[in-house]
Write a structure and sequence with these properties.
The structure is a single chain. By secondary structure, the protein is α/β, with parallel strands linked by helices. It folds into 2 domains: about 170 residues, Stage V sporulation protein AD (Peroxisomal Thiolase, Chain A, domain 1, 3-Layer(aba) Sandwich), CATH 3.40.47; about 150 residues, Stage V sporulation protein AD (Peroxisomal Thiolase, Chain A, domain 1, 3-Layer(aba) Sandwich), CATH 3.40.47. It contains 10 helices and 17 strands. Strands 1, 2, 3, 4, 5, 6, 7, 9, 10, 11, 12, 14 and 17 form a 13-stranded mixed sheet that branches. Helix 1 links the parallel strand 3 and strand 4. It is globular. The protein starts with a strand and ends with a strand. About 55% of the residues are buried. About 0% of the residues have low confidence.
């Protein structure tokens, strides 16, 4: 096996792992947005019949995982590892949500970038031969995030225009090996939605922003660095991609990102897309700067991005979920809000 390392922070896979199944479970508000008809499930009761919001988010995760397995014709026992995370302290949405699946778990926290992190690690594990099948999954919930990071909903505070709306939803993808298929039972090679041809792992970038209501501005520098590093490592530019897709920047973060890249000679105005902008209708849904949260990029990926790669509308995209690495403790102690972003190269199989 040749060295798959590329540049300073990237990997180009010899045998790109496949995404063979995907599931999106969205909340009511997300279902009312432009992507609503594309989601596998839209939950009208965002409490999911539970007594608290955290238990509800756990149910979102469990439903997304179970549906991704079901769509792939799989059982929990068919999955070697689960890479999953959420925004809550000690990853309680994940740990309580997927406990009954009894799949060996790597719990992850990359804030809203966690879908990029989970896919990256699952793909590395599969390509290296440590697992022939893994599941990558994340969730977020508007009410749990507001309760933990900002103000409980009952407080009724006004939201700044720069604020983004944490998406309620969970997305899950099954990632399988594309090595020559050798299933002893004689099973056919799995059908795939897309292949993961490479990744670029982000580093923490801190521009000193201390406004916790402006996550787009906090995360944009990290998105810029990961995209720029990716171009250097792969000797590519924006012209090599049908879409370069960030996860959670919203309208303010998008403007900053495009400005930063323009100063480096890259013009993404024609092919940049942000999941937080796509998820909601800014005119009718009052989400201010757009959407955010782990679930924002995850449900957009599973419902909108992967189908366009599967049918060949897009041949290659760079998927870059973005995260703000702060907590209520760090913010209240006067610390800034650093960001991180992880890039995943997704390609059509043809």
């Amino acid at each position: 096996m040749q060295n798959m390392q590329k540049g300073k922070a990237s990997i180009a896979f010899d045998h790109p792992p496949y995404i063979t199944s995907a599931a999106s479970v969205a909340g009511k508000k997300e279902g009312e947005g432009p992507l609503g008809p594309l989601f596998d499930v839209v939950e009208q009761d965002e409490m999911m019949g539970e007594k608290n919001w955290e238990a509800a988010e756990s149910k979102f995760q469990k439903k997304a995982a179970s549906l991704a397995l079901e769509k792939g014709g799989l059982k929990p026992g068919d999955v070697r590892y689960l890479f999953a995370g959420d925004l809550l302290g000690q990853l309680i949405a994940t740990s309580f949500g997927i406990m009954e699946l009894e799949i060996p778990l790597f719990g992850l926290y990359g804030a809203c970038s966690t879908m990029g992190e989970s896919i990256s690690l699952a793909a590395m594990t599969v390509e290296a031969g440590y697992a022939d099948r893994s599941l990558a999954m994340v969730s977020s919930h508007f009410a749990t995030a507001e309760k933990q990071f900002r103000f409980p909903l009952g407080y009724g505070n006004q939201r700044a225009y720069s604020a983004t709306w944490t998406a309620t939803g969970a997305g899950a993808v099954v990632i399988e090996s594309s090595h020559p298929w050798t299933d002893g039972a004689g099973a056919a090679e799995p059908k795939a939605l897309a292949k993961i041809s490479g990744i670029t792992t982000g580093r923490i970038v801190d521009f000193g922003l201390k406004d916790s209501t402006n996550m787009g501005a906090a995360m944009a520098p990290a998105a810029f660095h990961t995209i720029w590093q990716h171009f250097q490592d792969f000797d590519r530019s924006e012209k090599d991609y049908d879409k370069i897709i960030t996860g959670d920047l919203g309208t303010i973060g998008q403007t900053i990102l495009l400005d930063l890249l323009r100063k480096k000679g890259y013009d993404l105005a024609g092919n940049h897309m942000d999941c937080g902008i796509e998820l909601f209708d800014s005119q009718s849904q009052d989400t201010h700067a757009g959407g955010s949260g782990c679930g924002c990029s995850a449900i957009t990926l599973c419902s909108y991005i992967l189908p366009k790669l599967q049918d060949g509308t897009w041949k290659r995209v760079l998927f870059v979920p973005t995260g703000a690495l702060h907590s209520t403790v760090s913010y209240n102690e006067g610390e800034s809000v650093p960001g991180i972003a992880h890039g995943v190269v997704l390609e059509h199989i043809g």
